[in-house]
Amino acid sequence: xxxxxxxxxxxxxxxxxxxxxxxxxxxxxxxxxxxxxxxxxxxxxxxxxxxxxxxxxxxxxxxxxxxxxxxxxxxxxxxxxxxxxxxxxxxxxxxxxxxxxxxxxx
Length: 106
Prior knowledge:
Low-confidence stretches: none
Strand content: 15-25%
Radius of gyration: 15 Å
Strand order of the largest sheet: 1-2-3
Shape: globular
Number of strands: 3
Distance between the termini: 55 Å
CATH class: Alpha Beta
């Protein structure tokens, strides 16, 4: 049985990337019947600060800063299309929103 590739990578290659970059996020962008995938590392505090600071004066550049600093591997079509880059960053936001917290007054 042929191994299903993610962004052209095998499971072993993804494991190697995980060892190098830490926690990885796989995002899928859909447009009609087409699907594009991107693998991101979680942003560091420094990356979040930089993209947020840049985003205050230029939202598009702030988003692209986050993309450029967090992308690990993306489908080639994403690299060719700026709008796909922008949409792929939404995957990081969705990842952040996937965390749930509980609080309790003591």
